[in-house]
Amino acid sequence: MHRIFFRNPILGGRVAVEDSAEIKHLSKVLRAEPGHMFEACDSDGKVFVVEIVSIEDNAIWGKVVSRMKESVSAKAVVDLFQALPKKNNMDLIVQKNTELGINSIKPYVSSRTIVKIDEKNSVKKTERWRRIAKEAAKQSKRADIPRISDTVSFREMLLQLKEYDKSILLYENERGNGLELLESNKEDLQRIAVIVGPEGGFSPDEVKEIQDCGSISISLGPRILRTETAGFAALSIIQFLFGDMRGVGSGR
Questions:
Q1: E-strand spans in the chain?
Q2: 3-class DSSP assignment, residue 58
Q3: What is the C-alpha to C-alpha distance for residues 102 and 25, in angstroms, rounded to an integer?
Q4: What's the confidence (pLDDT) of residue 252?
Q5: Can you tell me the distance from the alpha carbon of 227 to that of 82, in angstroms, rounded to the nearest whole number?
Q6: Alpha-carbon gap, residue 170 to 178, rounded angstroms
Q7: How far apart are CA 14 and CA 64, in angstroms?
Q8: Closest CA to 136 of 101, 107, 108, 84
């Protein structure tokens, strides 16, 4: 069933689809007619089944048939601080982390970031990543869309780390700590930041600055992962530790 995200709460029994892209997709691609059902996700994360009542040029009107009970929100609130990668690798990072349940993705530029983008290109890329996140959220049946922030500097990224209960630096030279250390106090961790560097890695000074902000260096094992892979791996492990990637309904 097609899923549509709404920017406001759905109150009452009537729903209006006014986004031109969604109207086109429903009417032209899906060839929806009155009686067609779709899923509506509102800004509160509630999901409803809606039946189309009428189709107009500027709006598609529907009525709420039922509210869906299931929720696929991640148990751990994890934000990914991702150094900008080369080429279109950020597209993959946004898509797959959205599917895995990331809360938000915050791109940044470090001293060894290879790609260089100006303000105009940065705006275009951010808009593209937000579209990718929206489509991935639909496909994975999420009730929300992860926030894709504007690209910031390394310094600005450091300032944001103090907002988290735990910030984790994925560092290839770490030989001791693994993500299993989160298990001991996971009940106290409301928000977790995962920091991934660029293709060239972090400079020693950058590693020290991140650690000075209270971040813990973490190893993901003996193999060196690409920047586009590291976030997937870390998020998957965290989701498993917090019970999000175990059997549905297991209660564990």
A1: 3-5, 14-17, 37-41, 47-55, 60-67, 77-83, 104-109, 147-148, 152-153, 166-170, 191-196, 216-218
A2: coil
A3: 26
A4: 45
A5: 8
A6: 10
A7: 6
A8: 101
Q: What is the β-pairing status of strands 152-153 and 104-109?
A: parallel
pLDDT of residue 110: 94
Mean of the per-residue pLDDT values of the chain: 91
Band (116; pLDDT cuts 50, 70, 90): confident
Task: For 135-181, write each residue's pLDDT tens digit.
Answer: 999 999 998 999 999 999 999 999 999 999 999 999 999 988 989 88
CA 161 to chain centre: 17
Handedness of CA 105, 106, 112, 115 (dihedral sign): positive
Q: Which residues contact 116 (CB under 8 A, 6 or more apart)?
A: none
Q: What's phi and psi for 123, nearest 5 deg?
A: -65, -45
d(C-alpha 141, C-alpha 143), whole Å: 6
Q: Helices in 12-118 by DSSP H: which ranges?
A: 20-24, 89-100
Q: Which domains does the chain have, with CATH numbers?
A: 3-67 (2.40.240.20), 77-241 (3.40.1280.10)
Can you tell me the distance from the alpha carbon of 143 to that of 134, in angstroms, rounded to the nearest whole number?
11
> Which residues are paired to 5 by β-bridges?
41
Per-residue CA distances from 202 to 49, 111, 218, 232, 238 (Å): 47, 8, 14, 19, 23
Phi-psi region of 44 (alpha: psi -120 to 50; beta: other; left: phi over 0): alpha
pLDDT tens for each residue of 92-101: 999 999 999 9
Q: Give the model confidence (pLDDT) of 32-85 as tens digits.
A: 999 999 999 999 889 999 999 999 989 999 999 999 876 556 678 999 999 999
